[in-house]
Amino acid sequence: MIATTGAPGAVRELAIADALAWEATCLTGIAAGHRAAITQLWSCEPALVAPAGMARLPGFARACAQATDAGWPVHLRATGGDLVPQGPGIVNLTLMFRGPPDASSTLEDAYKRLTAPICDALSNAGISSCNGSVSGAFCDGRYNITVMGRKFAGTAQRWRPTAGGMAVQTHAMMLMRTPEDKTIDMLNRFYHDCGIKRIIHASAHVGLQDLVQPDEDKAAQHRFLRMVAHRAHLWSTPQMS
C-alpha cells in the first residue's frame, strides 16, 4: 500500500518531536512490509535538528542550552548530514519505500527518487534547478537542490536492512522563504558553542518566495507543493525507477 496524508499538496503541521517519531514509526512499518511506500509534506515549529553524532561534541550540551533559551530547542535525528533549522518558511518532504532485495539500489538512486519531484515542480514554475554543493550553506552536500547557485533544498536518507531487501527513508527540507539573518546567526552561534569552525551565510540560500513574482507568492507555493506531492506519489512505487 502507498500511503499519503491529506489532500495533494497539503502540508501536515506537526511538532518536531512528533514528526521525528512519526518518521521512525513509518520506517519500521516499511521494513515490516506493512506498506510499500509513504509520502508526506510537513512543517513544524522553530527548532534546530542535528544528527545524533553531533551529541558527542564537548560543547554540545552548552550549545543546546543556549539555543533553547533563544527559542530554538534542539532535537536529534537518525539520518546523517549536519545541523539544520526548522520552522515557518520551511516545508519538508518525507519519502519512504522498500528497495529491491538485490544490490541494484544505490544512494544516488534514492536521492534521484527524492529530488526528481522537487526539480520537476520547480521546472513547472519556470525555475531551473540542479544538484550540487553550495559553499556557505547549512548542511551542505552534493545532493542539495540549487537554483542560481544557491541552496533551495537539502536532502538526507537512512537505510534499514530487512529480510526482503531494504527500507529506505529519504527527506528533503525545502525553503519556501530565504532564511532570515537571525536564523543564520543562531546556526553560527551553535557551531561556535560546539567548537566547530564553520560559518553559514544567508546569501548561500534562496526560498521559493524570492523566485516568483510577489503577487504570485501564495498561489505559486500552492501549485509548487501540489506538484511535488503528485510527482512524489508517482515515484512511490515498490521498485526503484
Question: Which short descriptors sum up this protein?
Answer:
single chain; 241 residues; alpha/beta; BirA Bifunctional Protein, domain 2; eight-stranded mixed β-sheet; three-stranded mixed β-sheet; BPL/LPL catalytic domain-containing protein; Octanoyltrans_LipM/LipL; aa-tRNA-synth_II/BPL/LPL; BPL_LPL_catalytic
Average pLDDT rating: 91
Kindly provide the radius of gyration, computed on alpha-carbon positions and rounded to a whole number of angstroms. 17 Å
Helix and strand element order: EEHEEHEEEHEEEEHH
Note the overall shape.
globular
CATH superfamily: Bira Bifunctional Protein, Domain 2
Report the span from N to C terminus. Answer: 17 Å
β-strand percent reads: 25-35%
Secondary-structure content class: alpha/beta
CATH topology: BirA Bifunctional Protein, domain 2
Integer count of domains? 1
The CATH architecture name reads: 2-Layer Sandwich
For the report, how would you describe the main beta sheet?
Answer: 8 strands, mixed
So how many helices?
5
The strand count comes to 11
* Uncertain segments: none
Helix content: 25-40%
Broad CATH class? Alpha Beta
Pfam families: LplA-B_cat
Domain BPL/LPL catalytic: 33-236
Protein name: BPL/LPL catalytic domain-containing protein
Write the SSE topology.
Layout: E1 2-4, E2 12-13, H1 16-31, E3 37-43, E4 47-51, H2 60-69, E5 74-77, E6 84-86, E7 90-99, H3 107-124, E8 130-131, E9 145-147, E10 150-162, E11 165-175, H4 181-194, H5 217-235
Parallel strand pairs: 1-3, 2-3, 4-5
Antiparallel strand pairs: 3-7, 4-6, 7-11, 8-9, 9-10, 10-11
Helix pairs in contact: 2-4, 3-5
Pfam families: LplA-B_cat (PF21948)
Protein name: BPL/LPL catalytic domain-containing protein
Domain BPL/LPL catalytic: 33-236
